[in-house]
């Protein structure tokens, strides 16, 4: 039997009773450094590259995970939910039909059929202007306090938030807390993910954008997964959620009554997350 067109699949309400909102990096997809392949080489899983950057492969999932994700896209409203910019997200080519909805810039852009929804973005901007210190002030504080001995790069993402790329081994243990203590009263959240240290306005959340997608699609049951502090609001707002055995949340021992802390780490955690999603969408 031929597969229905992607648009037909997306709009069939009887097959869309669950919304699945998942973080991408270190939750579903993994860089070579984050794969966590601890088994002998001859037992390592086959990998599928889903992102190329500067003509080099960058992000992967297992072939098993790719098949699971394709099935999940047929059974749910699947919403990639990432802190990546729109440009960075555009490099990713996940298995299955292109998701109708995606969330970029930690909720700053709600993508609909590949385009940012201008009304949503304007709403986000108003909230940031009303409740948070200006981006320029926070960026200046981050750069001024950073030491060139461990600061590798500094970037602004979508004129919404700032981040530093750091040498983790040289980053002082107290620096992140000191920045967080300064940023908190000014309406900003600090998160360290791998080599990236983010400063993000507190109203800029994945959960708010996911709630908007749920409103538009009429789906009431939300599943979610993520590994970092920037995913905590998403997980708390979901009906059921999972976090991998690695990452910022795992390091903190973070959990909640409806969140399952998985033991798997690395790319194996991505497989496990997808299996859990499918189980909770009524997979036979």
Automatic annotation (TrEMBL):
InterPro entries: HAD-like_sf, HAD_sf, TPP-like. Coiled coil: none annotated. It comes from the Bacteria. The keyword Hydrolase applies. One of its GO terms (molecular function) is hydrolase activity. The keyword Hydrolase applies. Keywords: Hydrolase. This is HAD family hydrolase. It comes from Streptomyces chitinivorans.
């Amino acid at each position: 039997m031929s597969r229905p067109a992607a648009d037909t699949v997306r709009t069939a309400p009887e097959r869309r009773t669950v919304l699945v909102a998942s973080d991408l990096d270190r939750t579903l997809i993994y860089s070579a450094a984050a794969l966590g392949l601890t088994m002998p080489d001859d037992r390592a899983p086959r990998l599928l590259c889903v992102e190329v950057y500067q003509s080099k492969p960058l992000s992967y999932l297992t072939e098993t995970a790719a098949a699971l994700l394709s099935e999940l896209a047929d059974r749910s409203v699947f919403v990639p939910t990432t802190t990546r910019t729109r440009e960075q997200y555009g490099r990713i080519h996940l298995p299955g039909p292109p998701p109708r909805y995606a969330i970029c810039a930690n909720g700053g852009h709600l993508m609909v059929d590949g385009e940012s929804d201008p009304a949503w973005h304007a709403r986000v901007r108003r909230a940031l202007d009303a409740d948070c210190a200006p981006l320029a002030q926070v960026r200046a504080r981050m750069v001024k306090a950073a030491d060139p001995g461990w600061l590798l790069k500094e970037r602004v993402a979508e004129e919404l938030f700032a981040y530093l790329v750091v040498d983790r081994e040289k980053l002082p243990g107290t620096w992140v807390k000191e920045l967080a203590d300064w940023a908190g009263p000014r309406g900003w959240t600090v998160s360290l993910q791998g080599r990236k240290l983010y400063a993000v306005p507190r109203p800029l959340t994945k959960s708010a954008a996911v709630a908007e997608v749920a409103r538009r699609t009429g789906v009431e049951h939300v599943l979610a997964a993520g590994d970092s502090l920037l995913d905590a609001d998403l997980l708390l707002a979901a009906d059921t959620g999972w976090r991998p055995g690695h990452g910022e949340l795992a390091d903190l021992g973070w959990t909640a009554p409806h969140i399952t802390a998985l033991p798997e780490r690395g790319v194996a955690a991505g497989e496990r997350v997808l299996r859990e999603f499918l189980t909770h969408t009524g997979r036979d």
